[in-house]
Write a structure and sequence with these properties.
The chain is α+β, with helices and mostly antiparallel strands. Helices cover 46% and strands 21% of the residues. A hairpin with a 2-residue loop joins β3 (80-85) and β4 (88-93).
Length: 315
Amino acid sequence: MLKNELQVVKSNQVIEASYQLSTIEQRLVLAAISHIPKGQTVTDEVLYTVSVADLQLLGVNQTTAYRDIKEGVNKLYERSIHIWVDNKSIKIRWVQEIQFMDSQGVIGIRFSKPLLPFISNLSREFTKYALSDIAGMSSAYAIRVYELIAQYKSLGQREIAVIDLRNMLELGSRYVLFADLKRWVIDMAVEQINQYSPLNVSYKLKKTGKKVSHVVFYCEQKAIKLPSKIKIQEVQKNKIDEKVSDEVSVLVERFDRLSATNKQKIIDGIQSELKGRKLAHFNIEYTVYQKTQSSTVFRDFKDSFTRALANLVVE
């Protein structure tokens, strides 16, 4: 996670809560949460803004971004979340107010007051990840499953009962057949997590009797890809080229500051040390320099110019 990346900090109770949000609604919530200043108490007096630019970073189409934001935030205004606290189920609205700043392509979200303790960074039981981790995920289930796995990434695995997973995702009567749940929720989530996030995820199924009762997710941090040997060579070459370019620029600048007499001394000195094709090459490139100010002659005969300038007795 890069130091300056926007981060999402969520209570584990929210991550494990029961709620259903579309992909765009999830992106709105996560983008708004990522703008909460680290370590500051969250109050419902603050209106957190989400811009088109924020959503584009998460994969929203540029041409429809603001329309999608407005539609998403209107739906979010009607949404609630079920959180379990001390064996009690509490139903809370996500937001209490939304504002539209059409001319700026920005919407404002004021989170519901009862929700604030669960989206501030003041509790020990919080999960944190970079907002960019879920950029590109088009499945709302992929985002939710990623958060559930990210909670346990230090352990490398998490076992979730199928019934609990269904409740967390508020699937209701959808995907009643486990084959459908596996195809449209689990497999799709794992595929997108592996494609877009910094984690590699796999899973296995556990049965109680003949029925699948649990899903065990395994995760590990993706290895940082080191540049290939060719890439390293290209970088090294580029650095050398940049250094040569800087040296050539200095030579050109020093030469251009000389009087016509001293310039001719330099050229005569170089010509005297060259023979055959090298001399012909030099003469052609120097003529080009005189007509076009091309610095090629200084690059190709850098050492000769360096020596000549060092030995020049200025008149």
